[in-house]
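Think of the structure tokens as a kind of shorthand, similar to the way a musician reads notation: each symbol stands for something richer, in this case the local conformation of the backbone. In the example below we present two proteins back to back. Begin with the first one, reading the sequence and then the tokens, and try to describe in your own words what changes along the chain.
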Amino acid sequence: MERTPVTSTNIRAAGYETDSQTLEVEFNNGSVYQYAGVPLSEYEGLMNADSKGKFLNANIKGRYPYVKL
């Protein structure tokens, strides 16, 4: 999945696949997580958030199943 670099102290890049509603987040420490069943609006919210880390913690983590790649 292609990821878009973001400005964040915690997140390096994020990508989204519309067909599968999969959000992929690459952290600055090199770890990559895929979150399943994430609506496009959540991805857009993440990409537009002033604080990507705060948005991820408040709206994605704990709400959608994930796997660490």
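Once you have a description of the first chain, move to the second and do the same.
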Amino acid sequence: MIAFRIEKEYENQGHISKLVKMGEEYAKKRDIKYLTIGSEAKESRNLAIYLHFGYTEFVTSVVEDDCLVLFYKKSILS
């Protein structure tokens, strides 16, 4: 599992987009069929970003450190 955190001063500069795209390209080259991404439920902005990236298939939810985390999956092989 990998977790990305962006400090406020670096938001809206495309860093997460670049990291997600790099991760997807890495996975495609290794014939990985899908990726799963998680976000705290209270982070609606992050959830919207991940849905925009195509992570739309709900997988599961867990509670970590008293926070509800939602996981979504995306097929990355064409």
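Compare your description with these statements about the second chain. The longest helix spans residues 15-29.
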